[in-house]
């Protein structure tokens, strides 16, 4: 593995490492994973219900090595906090962790998770940027499980009635389409135009980063250096803030996480919604089934770009029964399990070929588009002090959205906060 200019100052800033890593020296061997018996899997609550199903399949096959699903809260920040609390007390309560892709550096650098033997996972079959999210300093610290890319959910029935034939590719097209639909379709009159995840939590970091990226700006550069105090970043943030101010985004959306937005969309309250792929399968079982589609996120002058999301499987350093854990991680991240996660719950797979499998594309026609969006998605800052980075972003973005700070001042303050966080 080759990392260029890897660590700034005290070694806390991970910069560009290539994905061709061979793990360097000290490759983790499976012999260091010992002990068999019951284990736990700690992950956020699963709205789709597919996680218990796949665990039940494992438990049937391994009655002496059963996995207990520990359901953590739905929001990413609370999950991270609980996992860190466990790690800091060296608790063995969590064996396998469903680690958000943005936490790999932090957990690996603190030695809260074990380095994994990469020859035991079919990484060459997976999308490269997804594998990259599981690496720290070239070593593999998690098994890529599901990826995530932002999509624009929109109401095809209403667009058709208004005579609009294609989904919007820019923010202004989206706003105009919404106005047209409201004008021409009486049932849509009271609907809100757009929502995303704007509550003050990790979802806001994602939505902020996407707005900045979709206006041509960046939060940090390829070496992890903050560069957010720019006119382009300001255009992105101003789109969100302006939309809240003029009502394109309803005030309630400032309290939305993923599930709140989904409920609003399914109840016919919102016309366009930014959300992750998991929502597709659930919305297909809701009152808007057959009345919506997804497209790439819109941007300032053309299609926007998504943040790279997703979850990987990491092994707690403090866990028991690590031989069982390694086998479970292989099972849970296998192509077979990924197919179930995709079929049942529309979770974005790590495996490249599933995006082009005819039967799956038949069920989820947007898969090829999603693959491109994941391949071109922008990773959030890859830093050990990720907690500081995300809370600075949340703080400043929320202040602008709620009208207590100008975007110019907030981006200036954010640049300085990010410089401090990444220089630690
Ligand atoms: C999704 C993404 C994850 C992201 C989170 C934010 O779960 O997979 O990467 O951090 O949403 O709410």
UniProtKB/TrEMBL annotation:
**The entry's keywords:** Signal, Transport
SUPFAM superfamilies in UniProt = Periplasmic binding protein-like II
What is the organism lineage in this UniProt record? Bacteria, Bacillati, Actinomycetota, Actinomycetes, Kitasatosporales
Give the originating organism: Streptomyces anandii
Please verify whether the record's keywords include DNA damage: no
Name the family. Answer: Belongs to the bacterial solute-binding protein 1 family.
Can you name this protein? ABC transporter substrate-binding protein
What Pfam families has UniProt attached to this entry?
Answer: SBP_bac_1
């Amino acid at each position: 593995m080759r990392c260029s200019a890897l660590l700034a100052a005290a070694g806390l800033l991970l910069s560009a490492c290539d994905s061709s890593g061979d793990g360097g020296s000290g490759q983790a061997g499976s012999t260091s994973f010992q002990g068999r018996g019951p284990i736990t899997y700690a992950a956020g609550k699963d709205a789709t219900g597919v996680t218990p199903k796949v665990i039940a399949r494992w438990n049937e096959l391994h009655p002496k090595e059963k996995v207990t699903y520990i359901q953590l809260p739905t929001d990413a920040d609370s999950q991270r906090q609980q996992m860190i609390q466990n790690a800091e007390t060296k608790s063995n309560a969590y064996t396998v962790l469903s680690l958000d892709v943005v936490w790999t550096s932090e957990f690996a650098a603190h030695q809260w998770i074990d380095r994994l033997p990469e020859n035991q996972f079919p990484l060459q079959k997976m999308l490269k940027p997804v594998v990259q999210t599981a690496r720290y300093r070239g070593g593999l610290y998690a098994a890529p499980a599901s990826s995530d890319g932002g999509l624009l959910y929109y109401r095809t029935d209403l667009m058709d009635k208004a005579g609009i034939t294609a989904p919007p590719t820019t923010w202004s097209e989206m706003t105009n389409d919404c106005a047209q639909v409201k004008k021409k379709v009486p049932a849509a009159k009271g609907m809100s135009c757009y929502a995303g995840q704007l509550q003050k939590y990790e979802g806001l970091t994602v939505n902020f980063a996407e707005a900045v990226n979709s206006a041509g700006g960046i939060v940090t550069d390829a070496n992890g250096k903050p560069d957010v105090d720019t006119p382009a970043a300001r255009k992105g943030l101003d789109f969100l803030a302006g939309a809240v101010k003029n009502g394109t985004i309803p005030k309630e959306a400032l309290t939305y996480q993923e599930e709140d937005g989904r409920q609003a969309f399914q109840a016919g309250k919102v016309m366009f919604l930014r959300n992750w792929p998991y929502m597709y399968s659930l919305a297909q079982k809701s009152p808007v089934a057959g009345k919506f589609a997804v497209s790439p996120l819109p941007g300032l002058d053309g299609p926007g770009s998504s943040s790279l999301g997703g979850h990987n499987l990491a092994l707690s350093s403090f866990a028991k029964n690590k031989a069982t854990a390694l086998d479970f991680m292989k099972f849970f991240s296998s192509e077979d399990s990924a197919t179930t996660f995709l079929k049942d719950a529309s979770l974005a797979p790590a495996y490249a070929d599933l995006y082009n499998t005819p039967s799956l594309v038949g069920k989820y026609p947007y898969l090829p588009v999603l693959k491109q969006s994941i391949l071109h998605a922008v990773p959030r800052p890859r830093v050990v002090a990720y907690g500081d980075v995300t809370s600075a972003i949340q703080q400043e973005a929320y202040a602008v959205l709620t009208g207590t700070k100008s975007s110019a001042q907030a981006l200036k303050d954010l640049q300085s906060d990010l410089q401090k966080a990444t220089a630690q």
